[in-house]
Write a structure and sequence with these properties.
Order of helices and strands: HHHEEEEHHHHHHEEHEHEEEHEHE
Strand order of the largest sheet: 4-3-11-12
Largest sheet: 4 strands, mixed
Number of strands: 12
Helix content: 40-55%
Distance between the termini: 22 Å
Length: 327
């Protein structure tokens, strides 16, 4: 058996380590006992022998409740409910959001079944498929439902802290300011029409104005400049209204194309862009507010890293003012 993680946990129990977090010796002992419990949970008995099946890599101390949340290697390596790998930062942030939900009283009444129903509705997949997905990711049904409940609780905390931020209220003045700073233009377009000339007309025939008007022209169609073939673009750009800009021999005769109208680029109005700008601003501000919320959670957190190199996986390489303990 490899006792490294157990020894690391026992080393964490030294008084100086926990007094550095909190001067209250009684609370320090409570933290120590919580760590011992977390370590014992990672050890199981198999045929009378003791085998380490998981590894403690990080603890989160919640000062208001005095609770210590343990993060194990299996928790960090297990995919999220969307099936994608999670970073250690994402794992820690979810635990912090659950603790934050508890602090604001948003952790009660979590209903994993309703949350699962919402996922079924939003993703348009049967419940059985989602449950099978949980199983494929290594969750038992009980673990999967528990994780669903935790995700719902974390989402409640985010909703309470982030979605209520007044910055997410987009005013028309915000839309107008964004439009002024980031104008958009309608693409330059050309209205073209086609007609088939009588049989026997040579491909290089020079049509007179009268001959062009005498042809039976189809209804005009619009082509943006970006859709014009490279060998046609210069010809169309130099053409005048009514000019032949393309000709192609076919079974029924010579198919000719003429320029009917030219629409130069024009700036889009605010009203045309209103909903798009509103969505863009909401996305940008939501990202900003969410980042602020998550950074504050980390700044206020008290963390213990068993392996110092894991610190950069949570905070990045740059120094951070986060209160943390590295053993």
């Amino acid at each position: 058996m490899n006792y490294n993680a157990v020894l690391a946990g026992l080393y964490l129990l030294r008084p100086a380590s926990f007094l550095a977090i909190n001067g209250d010796g009684v609370r320090a002992m409570k933290i120590g006992y919580s760590l011992i419990l977390g370590l014992l949970l990672s050890v199981c008995s198999v045929s009378g022998s003791r085998e380490l099946v998981d590894e403690l890599i990080l603890t989160i101390y919640d000062a208001p409740s005095g609770e210590v949340v343990t993060v194990t290697r299996s928790m960090a390596e297990r995919p999220g409910l969307n099936g994608q790998p999670r970073s250690l930062r994402e794992v820690v942030l979810q635990e912090l959001k659950v603790l934050d939900a508890r602090a604001i009283g948003a952790d009660t009444g979590a209903d994993p079944e309703k949350f699962l129903e919402r996922l079924v509705h939003e993703n348009h997949v049967p419940r059985s498929v989602l449950m099978q997905g949980l199983e494929d990711m290594g969750y038992t049904e009980r673990e999967g439902m528990k994780e669903l409940a935790r995700c719902e609780i974390a989402e409640r905390a985010r909703g309470a802290r982030v979605m209520a931020d007044r910055r997410l209220m987009i005013e028309r003045s915000d839309i107008e300011a964004y439009d002024e700073e980031h104008p958009e233009f309608h693409e330059e377009c050309f209205h073209l029409a086609q007609a088939c000339s009588p049989s026997g007309v040579a491909a290089d025939h020079q049509f007179s104005a009268e001959e062009i008007e005498a042809l039976s022209w189809e209804k005009p169609f619009m082509v943006p400049i970006s859709k014009l073939a490279d060998d046609r673009r210069d010809i169309v750009l130099k053409a005048k209204k009514g000019d032949i800009v393309d000709r192609e021999e076919g079974a029924e005769g010579l198919l000719v194309t003429r320029l009917v109208a030219h629409e130069p680029p024009s700036r889009k109005s605010v009203d045309e862009r209103y909903q798009d700008i509103e969505r863009q601003l909401h996305f940008e501000r939501l990202k900003e507010v969410l980042e602020e919320y998550e950074n504050k959670l980390l700044q206020d957190a008290v963390l213990h890293f068993i392996y110092p190199e894991d610190r950069s996986l949570v905070f990045g390489a740059a120094p951070s003012p986060v209160r943390e303990q590295v053993t």
